[in-house]
Design goal:
The protein is an alpha+beta fold. It has six helices and six strands. The strands form three sheets. Strands 1-2 form a two-stranded antiparallel sheet. The protein starts with 9 loop residues before the first strand and ends with a helix.
Length: 192
Amino acid sequence: QFKGKFTDQAPCKIMVKNLKFLWPATNYFILVSGLTKVQLFKDSMANSVITGPKSQEQFMAFNKKIYDLEISFDKNFSLQSKGIISADSLNTLEEAFYYKKSDLLLQQVKANPGSIISAFIVKNNLNYEIGIPILDKIYNSLTNKDNYYARSILNYSKLLVARTKMGIGFHAPYFDITDSKNRKISILQLQM
C-alpha cells in the first residue's frame, strides 16, 4: 500500500515476490495522487489489470496502440513463411512498421511534452530502427529534460550518431598505443 502525496508522476513496476516466470512478469503503472486499482493474477500477469487516474489510462491506451501495431506486423512473418509475401515485401513492411512506431512516439511526446511519462514511454521503446532525425525531433519536443528517461534518450541519440561514424572507409579516432617494448605509437604513424 502506498501512502503520501506525489508531486510528480512516476512510472513504477509491479513484481510479484518469489514468483518465477518469464515476461510479462511485470506490469508498469503510473503512480500519481489519486486511486490506482491493481488486479493481479499470479498465473497470468498478462491478464492483470491496472486502472487509475487519467495519466494511467492514457499510458495504457498508448501501450495498447504499440501492442496492436506490433501484433499487426508480427502477422507478416506468418504470411512470409507461407510464401504469401516475399522477403522484400516483408522488409518494406518492416520499414513502414518502424516509421509508424516512431510516429506514434512523436505524437505521444507532442501531446504531452512536459510529462515524464512521455520520456519513459520513448525510452522503453528505443531501438536501432528509430532514425536519428525522428529521435532528435522526439527529444527536442520534450519540455522536461531533467530526468533519467530524457537523458537516456539523449545518450541513445548520441550513440546512434557515433555508430554512423564507424565502419569501413571512416577515419579511426586519433589515439596512442603502447607496443610490447613500451614505446608509444600514434595511430597517425600507422596511417603513413
